Amino acid sequence: MHTLDSIRNERLGWLKHKNVAHIIDEINTIDDIDTNITIDDIVAIEIPNITIELKQKIEKIAVMLKPWRKGPFKIDDLFIDSEWQSFIKYNLLKPHFDIKDKIVGDIGCNNGYYLFRMLEEKPKKLIGFDPSNLFFTQFSFINHFVKSEIVYEMLGVEHVGMYEHKFDTLFCLGVLYHRSDPISTLKSLYQGLNAGGELILDTFIIDGEDDIALTPLERYSKIPNIYFIPTVNALKNWCYRAGFKSIELLEIKTTDLKEQRKTQWIDSQSLEDFLDSNDSNLTVEGYPAPKRAYIKAKKA
151-178: per-residue pLDDT in tens? Predict the structure, then answer.
């Protein structure tokens, strides 16, 4: 059986892979410089007295790090207009959590946009989980300037229950539908929480009152690794079966072209390409268009 340290060490080796190793080398050539940080809808980094050479280097690295899925970020006058306007989701959820002085984890944290936003809430500790070496490198690039104490682990949701400590609040945003066993995933999240801890989760849902889930044949919105899309009632049942006792539906929101769209920072397709060109209520495969439920589940 692999220990957490052995998994961690193995994955740190992924930073030597050719897709990111040369970018990390470039980041390491940037000196430790003074910055002013503004954290709002845009995570903005001001660099006083920035040189033309540094501007060019920052832009070069940012382009090398594409695609930028979550954000946006601004470094001096370089605006990284990410595919997702992630502040829409964050601002939707913000009234529903209090993480001051708490140990917080973001599972599937991507490049850490939500973690950077959470710095303003004064948590005790922030830890991100995501096994992508590209997203880790994007985070490292931004954090080179932010200089936060956020811990980024190249681990997955399956490692949360075996982590060195428990969490007061866990965020798991846009992950559950990528898991072939959603109840086991929810159990791992449950095991990672302290008693009385909270899980903030969002996932795709379908309309209906029955306790059922859509199981796409091959792809959903052109995404291959989408396994189950439940009704809200089925999602709640999954949470109950994982051990959660108090489940609150916070919001249901259809994903629209304001929140997710194609930009020059992804060089690939986005929501507009995933929907039926004749009926935006359907995906290209004929399934209901993406809609998300946001829930809060508590550990007794």
Answer: 999 999 999 999 999 999 999 999 999 9
Question: Which domains are assigned to the chain?
Answer: 85-298 (3.40.50.150)
Taking every pair of Cα atoms in the chain, the longest distance, rounded to a whole number of angstroms, is: 60
Positive or negative torsion for Cα 106, 108, 113, 116: positive
Edge to edge, the sheet with strand 78-80 lists 36-39, 43-46, 73-75, 78-80
Tokens of 199: 């899980």
List the end-to-end C-alpha distance of the chain, in Å, as a whole number.
30
User: What DSSP string describes 68-126?
Assistant: --S--EEETTEEE--SB-THHHHHHHGGG---TT-EEEEET-TTSHHHHHHGGG--SEE
Question: How does the average pLDDT of the chain come out, rounded?
Answer: 97
Token digits for 265? 């920072």
Neighbours of 31 (CB within 10 A): 6
What tokens appear for 72 in the block? Answer: 């946006």
In angstroms, rounded to a whole number, what is the distance separating the alpha carbons of residues 168 and 173?
16
Can you tell me the distance from the alpha carbon of 279 to that of 24, in angstroms, rounded to the nearest whole number?
43
Q: Give the DSSP per-residue string, 220-253.
A: BTTBS----EE-HHHHHHHHHHHT--EEEEEEEE
Residue 157: what pLDDT? 98
Sign of the C-alpha dihedral, residues 15, 118, 170, 291? negative
Task: Give the residue from 82, 93, 91 showing the smallest Cα distance to 39.
Answer: 91
Q: Please say whether the beta carbons of 114 and 88 come within 8 A.
A: no
Q: Is the peptide bond before 48 cis (omega within 30 degrees of 0)?
A: no
What's the whole-model pTM score? 0.97
What digits encode the pLDDT tens for the residues 177-224? 999 999 999 999 999 999 999 999 999 999 999 999 999 999 999 999
